[in-house]
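> forwarded from #structure-qc
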């Protein structure tokens, strides 16, 4: 953490926390006036647990979970809900680069690099898919989820259950 550049800290906090604050602040008056709305923040497993070498990201995602809870409390008597989805590993281009780098560095097949990366955190050994995250978001928008407020919902293959 000592060597983490301050400008990088500011950028990570702005993208992962401040942007959600500003979006919710702009949307909430319209939602509360209509008596209905759904705010779904995309946090991370790192919003619930920490990992080393990720001070800014972990801080931002923990802050996003906290912001989610505050919004949920402040809108509890309205038709507006606010929840956070906390995914584990998703196979994004950034994660694929980590896999490729590990495979190259260790001179192992890509499949073995994927297995190693997932086994560090995610007991299921499988990536969370964007379709699974989307389905959870769709559920949170439904009437069945009307009383789910301020929840940080893990979708992480068992990562945060450990």
């Amino acid at each position: 953490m000592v060597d983490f550049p301050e400008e990088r800290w500011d950028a990570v906090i702005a993208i992962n926390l401040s942007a959600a604050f500003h979006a919710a602040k702009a949307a909430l008056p319209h939602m509360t006036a209509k008596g209905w709305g759904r705010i779904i923040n995309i946090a991370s497993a790192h919003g619930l647990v920490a990992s080393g070498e990720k001070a800014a990201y972990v801080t931002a995602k923990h802050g996003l979970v906290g912001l989610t809870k505050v919004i949920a409390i402040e809108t509890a008597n309205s038709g507006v809900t606010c929840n956070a989805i906390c995914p584990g590993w998703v196979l994004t281009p950034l994660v694929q680069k980590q896999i490729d780098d590990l495979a190259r560095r260790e001179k192992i097949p890509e499949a073995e690099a994927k297995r190693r990366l997932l086994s560090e955190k995610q007991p299921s050994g499988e990536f969370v898919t964007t379709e699974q995250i989307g389905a959870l978001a769709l559920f949170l928008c439904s009437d069945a989820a009307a009383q789910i407020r301020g929840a940080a919902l893990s979708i992480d293959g068992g990562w945060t259950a450990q």
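QC bot note: The two ends are 25 Å apart (CA to CA). Strands lie at 37-42, 80-87, 152-155.
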